[in-house]
Amino acid sequence: MGFGIEGPRVRLVPLDDNRHFEYCLRWINDREVTKWLGMDDLLLSRMAEKAWFEKASAGPNLQTLAWVIELLDGTPIGTSMADKVMGNQCYTTGSLIGDRSLWGQGLGTEASFLRLQHMFEDLNVWQLQSGYLDGNEGSRLMQERLGYEQVGRYPQQFWRRGAYHDHVLNVLTRTRYEQLKSEGFYDTWRNSKSK
């Protein structure tokens, strides 16, 4: 039996060097997986990824929260992160599904829901901030399905694969989360995804 924050099809678990490092190293160096991340198509050495991994898994300091997304059978498929905005009960968030064979199945959305539910209900967070590069339909749909609202746009902020892309900024506040939850917004989504 697994442990962590569990949903109908995936769970969030703490980073574990022995179980997860090789997966994370492979995913972060897969140019299709990182196509829409803010990394400028950089490939990371084992040492650079190890430094990130050690920092992200150092313990529950509530500055950086990091999880591996697993299927319920324990297979790692991606990562989910939240970084605290200094001086506030706000976090910037992001996720990736590293196993490309599982893209488009709503697993990233389910994992992101588990993350936001945990952060609002267990950690007393006030606001989650996220964003995506214009053209990243997977992230756009995921954030829309979870109730994030667009609050801004940086025009042509990032260069990716031969073109500049706008950076779209989204926010989900605790007030909106609680309103959507009371209206059954998340129940409807979770029930449809778990079938």
Task: Supply database-style keywords.
195 residues; alpha+beta; 8-stranded mixed β-sheet; 8 strands
Describe this entry's structure for a reader:
The chain is of the alpha+beta class and 195 residues long. α1 packs across α2. The protein has 6 helices and 8 strands, in the order ββααβββαβαββαα. Strands 1-2-3-4-5-6-8-7 form an 8-stranded mixed β-sheet, sandwiched between helices. The two termini are 21 Å apart. The mean pLDDT is 87. It is 33% helix and 32% strand.
Strand order of the largest sheet: 1-2-3-4-5-6-8-7
Structural class: alpha+beta
- Compute the number of helices: 6
> Mean pLDDT, as a whole number?
87
Give the strand tally: 8
Poorly predicted runs: none
Oligomer: single chain
Query: Termini separation (Å)?
Result: 21 Å
Q: Let me know the largest β-sheet.
A: 8 strands, mixed
- Work out the strand percent: 25-35%
Fraction of residues in H or I helices: 25-40%
List the helices and strands in order: EEHHEEEHEHEEHH
List strands and helices in order, with pairings.
Elements: E1 5-6, E2 10-14, H1 17-28, H2 46-56, E3 64-71, E4 76-85, E5 90-97, H3 107-121, E6 127-133, H4 137-145, E7 149-160, E8 163-173, H5 174-182, H6 185-193
Parallel strand pairs: 5-6
Antiparallel strand pairs: 1-2, 2-3, 3-4, 4-5, 6-8, 7-8
Helix pairs in contact: 1-2
Structure summarized in a few sentences:
By secondary structure, this protein is an alpha+beta fold. 33% of the residues lie in helices and 32% in strands. The protein starts with a strand and ends with a helix.
